[in-house]
Design a protein that fits this description.
By secondary structure, the protein is α/β, with parallel strands linked by helices. The protein contains ten helices and 23 strands. It has two domains: 72 residues, Urease, subunit C, domain 1; 289 residues, Alpha-Beta Barrel (TIM Barrel). It starts with a strand and ends with a strand.
């Protein structure tokens, strides 16, 4: 069925088209027009001048709608993914916090199966741990955290076909070798939950670590070791020219001035927006999957308030926060929610921008950036 989205303020890689239209067939964009002249035989949908932007690509999300991806079941995966879809995430990489091997295997089996379903928004699995620095565990379960185990990670990657990203502390024994292995397999290697200093970050970058996990959170900054000053993970990442960063843009994990700083120093092309959302996101029941976690001030915290534990943000909130609180132009905030993560995760050939040949994944947002409609593969959610 041919569909034409009319009268949209459409964001394309070349810039905005005011009063333009998208022509969609069989779930794909077949034309982006600079006008809204009616096409005979098409279903016509009037965007009424609203912003039409690419659907969000969520590369770091633990759950939603009351379900956590750590459960490893098809039901949990579907409920959490479909919850985020309603809020503008049209492609998602389910994320597991530090987990036992059986938990990872269950999630791998589920993820592999769901990725094969027609028009699935699940793109692959993301493991956040368990190879982390205990000093920067944050809300990760310390009893599960361990050093890289070559036999274990080779089994997970070679025996399942769903792994797309793995986060590791680069200063751990065996982490550099693991980074080389991940890069060789085409899996995004990220540094996270780390006390790495410059030499560790530089070695990791050289080995293939290309992304900083929830930048500024669970990592060191400029600090003293006795009387001498040291560059922390944050400053070291800034010095790696092609290292990407992801930021939890809920306005709480990273305050507005730092959101602006990351935008200015790393830029749109190297910065991705993530929710890092937990199971309680978009859920009426405020009981968290992890009993150690509480919800307070619009964010998840450890109950002793020693650390933030994750967010309850959704994709539309990320975009609003960047524009309305951090003062970033909408076109740049949108690109950081779609184009940049699509490029990082290797799916920019089919998602992340509105142009001919891409999947018809897009959002309608009004002048106040309220989400008004979500389309995935040309289908309204």
């Amino acid at each position: 069925m041919l569909t034409q989205i009319l009268n949209g303020h459409i964001l394309t890689p070349q810039g905005w088209i005011n009063g333009g239209s998208l022509v969609i067939d069989n779930g794909h964009i077949i034309e982006v027009k600079k006008d809204s002249n009616l096409i005979d035989g098409a279903e016509h949908i009037d965007a009424q001048g609203m912003h039409v932007i690419p659907g969000g690509i969520e590369m770091h999300c633990h759950g939603g709608g009351g379900r956590d991806f750590m459960e490893g079941t098809p039901e949990a995966f579907k409920v959490a993914s479909e919850t985020h879809l309603k809020y503008g995430t049209t492609a998602i990489y389910p994320t597991l916090s530090s987990s036992t091997l059986p938990m990872i295997e269950d999630a791998c089996e589920t993820c592999s199966a769901l990725m094969k379903e027609k028009d699935s928004i699940i793109m692959g699995l993301h493991l956040e741990g368990p190879y982390f620095n205990l000093k920067k565990a944050g809300a990760q379960m310390p009893e599960i955290i361990r050093n890289p185990d070559e036999k274990e990670y080779r089994h997970i990657i070679e025996d399942y076909d769903c792994m797309r990203r793995w986060d590791v502390a680069p200063e751990l024994p065996g982490a550099i070798e693991m980074g080389r292995y991940l890069a060789d397999k085409g899996i995004v290697a990220a540094i996270g939950h780390t006390a790495a200093e410059y030499e560790h970050v530089a070695a990791g970058y050289k080995a293939g670590y290309s992304l900083a996990t929830h930048f500024y959170n669970a990592m060191t900054g400029f600090h003293n070791v006795r009387e001498y000053k040291h560059a922390g993970t944050v400053e070291s990442v800034y010095l790696m020219p092609n290292m990407d960063v992801e930021i939890i843009a809920d306005g709480i994990h990273v305050p507005a001035p730092i959101l602006q700083l990351v935008y200015q120093l790393k830029g749109v092309e190297r910065t991705a927006l993530i929710t890092d959302a937990l199971a309680v996101t978009a859920c009426e029941n405020a009981k968290a999957f992890d009993p150690r976690v509480i919800i307070e001030d619009g964010v998840c915290k450890l109950s002793d308030r020693s650390a933030l534990a994750g967010s309850v943000a959704t994709m539309d909130r990320l975009i609003r926060t960047m524009v309305q609180i951090a003062g970033i132009p909408l076109e740049d905030a949108s690109r950081m929610a779609s184009e940049t993560p699509a490029r990082i995760m290797g799916i920019l050939d089919r998602k992340g921008t509105l142009e001919k040949g891409k999947d018809a994944d897009f959002l309608f947002m009004d002048a106040d950036l309220n989400l008004k409609a979500v389309y995935t593969m040309g289908r309204k959610v």
